[in-house]
Design brief:
Helices cover 29% and strands 21% of the residues. It has 13 helices and 16 strands. The chain has helices at residues 3-11, 26-40, 60-77, 99-111, 129-134, 149-164, 190-200, 235-251, 263-267, 300-307, 321-330, 402-405, 426-429, and strands at 14-15, 48-49, 82-86, 116-121, 137-140, 170-176, 206-212, 226-232, 281-284, 313-319, 335-340, 352-369, 372-384, 387-392, 416-419, 436-438. Helix 5 links the parallel strand 4 (116-121) and strand 5. The chain is globular and about 70 Å long. The chain starts with a helix and ends in a 35-residue tail after the last strand. The mean pLDDT is 94.
Length: 473
């Protein structure tokens, strides 16, 4: 089995009915689809679900095997009236740049033209012509952090059910914003753009509207920011509304640029208690976010925290199975010289050697996101000087404070909490603090979008070009 095939198995490939609390997101989505189907008296058949932590291109054989399993399950369920696919939207294999478009096309070949195909996507997807051509309706989550899996699942089901019954005939249009960026929806101006989707969906004939954030670090032709609109049997209407929303997105492009700080800019002044000490400061190491494909073992931010001996801090999750195993072998209370991070590859930076005390251990650590259990594998809490460090064997971004507190980390003592995540951490950590800063550490996922080394994607996009789409200005 290839490395990437093992990555899918690590999180658990589900064949057939999905447990309601499985895999953080698919369980609640499928539960909504079951409930919707039950209300109509429809029968649901469930196929295969597989997820892996983002990384490089998926080996061709791994993608082919998963694709065959999905299609075989569909063939066994035939005939069907509706196919619902819950996909991320940015999967790239060694020989297919658009795995979702390829899969949707293959599903269409199995079910024929009369079956309704609906797709729910993450907003960090690539929106391709093949996806639009072969699906009947596509709905994207609109919140980032993605807190609306279930609401969008219901929206997609109802949209597809209406189409299957003949009440509507969905048609889709996409407008390219000629942008690459990073768009948390918890602040303006992105909050206003998301709220505008609700407004346009009240117009006669508009069935759904979605903002395609795009996955900036995917070097494929379809990467980038777009708008998708679904209308009822009116392609011209879909196109007009998509262009209108794309214009609003494009005109906000300068305000939407990420505001990055250096570590020193974010930390200077933190050593002296003041009014701001009422809540801890959260530093997001977005460049080392495993959720975007980074290794999660970059050490620049950790080194900066340890150097500030007068500043109590905590950091997690550093992915380093070797360091965890050394701590497990030493035991709680042990003092040892530990080589942390810098091991996964060139983008990991340099290993950091620290004198640490082992404070907490687990052979089966986890974090909870709501009532969803997210396994983190073997884990250790170590302390070096003023800094508490959580290490884990599984590469995963931190989503919840209990990834730290679950090992015993006294998070209430920390003036600074450093998280290896871009923005998904915000949903749970904002309950502790809204003093959040994204810092540039030189890790794998640069947010200097103008200088990303694209080779397959064209370079006529903002911010690489100041006004790449005058027709949207």
């Amino acid at each position: 089995m290839s490395h990437h095939a093992r990555a899918f198995e690590e999180l658990g490939i589900i064949r057939g009915p999905v447990p309601s609390k499985a895999l953080a997101d698919v369980g609640p989505v499928v539960a909504q689809w079951r409930q919707c189907a039950h209300r109509y008296g429809d029968e649901v058949r469930e196929g295969l679900y597989a997820i892996a932590q983002p990384a490089g291109r998926v080996p061709a054989e791994t993608y082919r095997r998963l694709r065959v399993e999905i299609l075989d399950a569909l063939k066994a369920a035939m005939p069907v009236d509706i196919v619902l696919l819950f996909l991320h939207g940015a999967m790239v294999s060694e020989d297919v740049d658009d795995c979702e478009g390829d899969l949707i096309q293959a599903v269409r070949e199995v079910v024929g033209s009369d079956c309704v195909i609906g797709v729910e996507l993450d907003p960090h997807c690539h929106m391709s012509e093949a996806m639009i051509e072969h699906a009947d309706a596509i709905v994207l989550m609109r919140e980032y952090p993605h807190t609306d899996y279930e609401a969008r699942a219901v929206e997609l089901f109802e949209l597809c059910r209406a189409a299957a019954s003949g009440a509507t005939r969905p048609v889709m249009a996409v407008a390219d914003c000629h942008m690459v960026g990073f768009y948390p929806t918890t602040s303006q101006p992105m909050r206003g753009l998301v709220d505008r989707l609700h407004e346009v969906e009240q117009r006669p004939g508009v069935l759904s509207a979605s903002l395609v954030h795009g996955f900036p670090w995917g070097d494929v032709a379809d990467a980038g920011t777009k708008v998708l609109v679904v209308a009822n049997d009116d392609s011209a209407l879909a196109g007009r509304v998509a262009t209108e929303l794309a214009q609003a997105f494009y005109r906000a492009r300068h305000a939407l640029l990420p505001r990055l700080e250096t570590i020193d800019e974010a930390l200077d002044g933190m050593a002296v208690p003041g009014p701001e000490a009422l809540m801890p400061r959260v530093l997001a190491d977005a460049g080392d976010n495993p959720g975007g494909g980074a290794p999660g073992d970059h050490t620049v931010l950790l080194a900066a925290l340890v150097r500030r001996t007068g500043l109590r801090s905590a950091i997690g999750i550093v992915c380093d199975a070797e360091a965890v195993d050394a701590c497990l072998a030493a035991g709680i209370g042990a003092q040892l010289t530990l080589c942390i991070g810098g091991k996964a590859g060139a983008s990991s930076g340099q290993p950091l050697t620290l004198e640490v005390t082992v404070r907490g251990l687990s052979r089966s650590h986890r974090q909870w996101v709501g009532d969803i259990d997210d396994p983190l594998g073997r884990a250790a809490w170590v302390r070096s000087g003023p800094t508490d460090i959580v290490l884990a064997s599984r590469r995963q971004q931190i989503l919840s404070p209990d990834a730290l507190t679950g090992l015993g980390v006294p998070l209430h003592e920390a003036r600074v909490i450093a998280v290896k995540s871009s923005h998904h951490y915000y949903g749970e950590f904002s309950k502790l603090s809204t003093d959040c800063h994204v810092v540039e550490t030189g890790a794998a996922l640069s947010m200097d979008f103008a200088r990303l080394p694209y080779q397959r994607r064209d370079l006529n996009f903002f911010p690489a070009v100041g006004n790449p789409a005058p027709h949207l200005a």
